[in-house]
Structure to design on (123 residues):
């Protein structure tokens, strides 16, 4: 059973930085694609903002490209999201999840969601 424990969120002023962490257990961490999603308050949909392949290849949503950096530590089974130059529109609950590839540009989360970590960016 996959377990996901996100941490590192908080309240930060616009332009600031945060580093999120996600400890993943129950899967072979190094062999899976992993992703960060976010859910904006009042919106039911989680949006994939960054993903990383087993070989370390990274992909970002246009809205975070150049500001966010996804990385992982296979030895610690931990996924990271470095968020710089934060904007108010980055305010959301952030979740991690292993993802499965369904062809084209379609990825789906593999597991149930963890508790997430709240990021709030003030003006």
């Amino acid at each position: 059973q996959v377990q996901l424990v996100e941490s590192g969120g908080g309240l930060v002023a616009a332009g600031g930085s945060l580093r999120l962490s996600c400890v993943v257990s129950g899967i072979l961490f190094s062999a899976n694609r992993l992703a960060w999603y976010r859910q904006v308050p009042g919106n039911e949909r989680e949006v994939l903002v960054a993903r990383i392949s087993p070989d370390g290849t990274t992909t970002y949503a246009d809205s975070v490209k150049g500001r966010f950096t996804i990385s992982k530590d296979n030895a610690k089974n931990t996924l990271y999201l470095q968020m710089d130059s934060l904007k108010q529109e980055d305010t959301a609950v952030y979740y991690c999840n292993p993802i499965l590839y369904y062809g084209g540009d379609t990825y789906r989360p593999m597991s149930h969601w963890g508790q997430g970590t709240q990021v709030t960016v003030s003006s």
Remarks:
- The CA atoms of residues 66 and 80 lie 16 Å apart.
